[in-house]
Amino acid sequence: EMEAVLAAPEDVLMSEINVTTASQLLAALPEPEEKKWICDWQSPEKLDVVLSQSEIIILTLPLTEQTRHLMNRHRLDLMKNDASLINVSRGAIIDEQALIEFLQQGKFRGVALDVFEEEPLVVKSPLWDFNNVLVTPHNAFVSDKNHRRLFDLILKNLSTYAKAWHHEISADIT
After folding, report:
1. What's the pLDDT at 107?
2. Among 26, 33, 80, which residue's Cα sits nearest to residue 53?
3. Section 5-16 average pLDDT
4. Of 84, 86, 112, 142, whose CB count within 10 A is highest?
5. Distance from first CA to last CA of the chain, Å, rounded?
6. How far apart are CA 134 and CA 171, in angstroms?
7. Residue 27 scores a pLDDT above 80
8. Neighbouring C-beta atoms of residue 76, cutoff 10 Å
């Protein structure tokens, strides 16, 4: 059911809130004529506008002093009533109590949460009780292929480092 709730038609405005530098956030916007996704860089000062215009918000940013409760009561209220909110970054990005209150009022088409202010999510949390909230464990890293992925990653990093180091040594010799 949640899959259908979070699925987006081609003309839906979806924005990823992601801090790429101190002065930019990324909003993915559909190009009307071709129905292709394009990226538009917005300043953080435009976050409220992006939130009010988007049907789907995906949070993928680190937790810092500036991003703690970035999605506070005011910003959650700015979002469309039938918007979908997805948080795969850090739980404290969203003011969880404010989110619960908005969900109790019927706001949001769907909410997918992979992270929470307190992890693991407590059994008594009201978030478990909403039909339009998908709760997933914050363990995307865990699989039977972990060791292979880690080995490949370490090997690639060591190889890149060795090539760069060799290049520096070669440049010093010549």
Report:
1. 97
2. 80
3. 54
4. 84
5. 65
6. 54
7. no
8. 21
| Active site amino acids | 90, 119, 138
Tens of pLDDT along 99-129?
Answer: 999 999 999 999 999 999 999 899 999 999 9
Q: Is the pLDDT of residue 170 over 70?
A: no
* Cβ burial 133-169 (10 Å sphere, 16+ → b, else e): bbbeebeeeeeeeeeeeeeeeeeeeeeeeeeeeeeee
- What backbone phi and psi angles, to 5 degrees, belong to 54? -90, 145
Name the burial class of residue 14, with classes exposed (0-12), middle (13-18) and buried (19+) by CB atoms within 10 angstroms of its CB: middle
Please tell me the distance from the alpha carbon of residue 106 to that of residue 91, in angstroms, as a whole number.
21
CA dihedral angle for residue 21, residue 18, residue 114, residue 51, rounded to 10 degrees: 140
Encoded tokens for 16: 């990823």
Retrieve residue 37's tokens.
Answer: 């996704």
The token pair that represents 3 in the structure block: 């899959």
Upstream peptide bond of 120 is cis (omega within 30 degrees of 0): yes
Q: How confident is the model at residue 30, as a pLDDT?
A: 44
